[in-house]
Amino acid sequence: MTPYTSNPGTLKLQRIQKLGSPYQPLVILGVLFAYITLQGSYIPHICLFDEILHLKCSFCGITHSFEQLLKGNVLRSVTSNILASFLIFHFLMSFIFSKTNRLNLQSLNNRVFLVLVCIQFGLNNAHLISG
Ligand SMILES: [Zn+2]
After folding, report:
1. Buried-most residue among 1, 47, 94, 123 (CB within 10 A)?
2. How many angstroms does the Cα of residue 60 sit away from the middle of ligand 1?
3. 84 to 17, 21, 68, 111: CA distances (angstroms)
4. How far is CA 78 from the centre of its chain?
5. What is the arithmetic mean of pLDDT over 99-118?
């Protein structure tokens, strides 16, 4: 018996994580939807990455992109920030893969998301290269 598995607090935490994790992506999507519909995009732009490094992070403009998506302007949403459209897909797939225990597909889903985050970082800062 190892001290970690016999610790009741650790066991309880493991149970909570196991129960809560499949629904986490849906909760995040719900919070995002509520944020946009309650006009959260009218809050001034705040980004520590932008403030400190003077570079736009991958998520700069994502609220505007979500807003366009909810208005049905898919093209404007995608040209504004590709992550908004993919985040919905990513969270839905994340929910399905965790419910069906498809960990290999969940891992692929996470890697594709990471690649898109890198691509969006390049797109958000492309103006620095072109001058
Ligand atoms: Zn940012």
Report:
1. 94
2. 4
3. 26, 21, 10, 16
4. 15
5. 92
Q: Is residue 90 part of a domain?
A: yes
| Domains of the chain: total | 1
Q: Is residue 93 part of a domain?
A: yes
Residue 35 lies in a domain: yes
| 36 compared with 57, residue with greater pLDDT | 57
CA of 77 to the centre of ligand 1 (A): 16
What pTM was estimated for this model as a whole? 0.70
C-alpha of residue 16 to centroid of ligand 1, in Å? 32
Structure-block tokens of residue 93: 């797939």
Q: How far is the CA of 29 from the centre of ligand 1 (A)?
A: 19
Note whether residue 6 is domain-resident.
Answer: no
Contact 109, 72 (CB under 8 A): no
Question: In terms of DSSP H, where are the helices of 8-102?
Answer: 8-20, 24-37, 48-53, 62-71, 74-80, 82-99
